[in-house]
Amino acid sequence: IYDPYYCQGGTKKKLERLGFSNVYNKNEDFYKVCETPEAPSFDAIVTNPPFSEDRHLSFVLDFAVRSRKPWFMVLPMHVIFEDIYVHVMETLDPSLKPFFIVPPKKYNFKTPAPLPPPPTENRPKARTRSRISHTLWVIQGGSELSMHERLLEVAKSSVAAESCHVARTVADLPTDSLPGCFTAEMRQNAEREGLTVP
Fold it and tell me: By the 8 A CB rule, do 33 and 46 touch?
């Protein structure tokens, strides 16, 4: 399992506790590593990329799709309606388009220790944890349809699915998790995927 974003190195420990002992998550520059022959080999990508800039998201999405390996990615809900996501997914066979797992409530994102502490003068915003936007798991099974379908089957039948919502397509997403405001670009992409937004 490859997580290219190190943050504080918690991914490897968490996945090992779940029984996944072969995890590559090192404190290195993912973008520079991709330019060298030393890029790690892997069977699957599991990551929560930085949301701060579109370039991070477009790079890792393109990397994941080009790898032709299964990938699991936490993304802000609004990203799947934006061109940076849609254009990369258009390179996939329609039968291999990602499916989604929507958690029952917003995830908490803890501010990494090296970053400055949150502000104290405005208490509503002074949180070490952030629930700014809805996020979801975006999952794609690589180049093999059988793997893609198997992952979807497991997601639908898992215990976690009792509280999470599994959506095969954008049109199947629960309305209460959708972005509160759609730009013209997002609206157009949503409608192309069969989702009517108010």
Answer: no
Q: Which residues contact 154 (CB under 8 A, 6 or more apart)?
A: none
Q: Please give the biggest Cα pair distance in the chain.
A: 53
Query: pLDDT for 32-77, tens place per residue?
Result: 999 888 789 999 999 999 888 888 999 999 999 999 999 999 999 9
- Short-list 66, 41, 83, 70, CA closest to 139: 70
Contacts of 186 (CB under 8 A, 6+ apart): 78, 81, 82, 179
> Tens digits of per-residue pLDDT, 116-144?
555 555 545 544 455 567 899 999 999 99
- Distances in Å between the Cα of 131 and the Cα atoms of 7, 60, 76, 124 are 18, 22, 11, 12
Q: In Å, what is the CA distance from 96 to each residue of 65, 82, 87, 168, 192? A: 10, 19, 15, 11, 17
Q: Are 164 and 95 in contact (CB under 8 A)?
A: no
pTM for this one?
Answer: 0.87
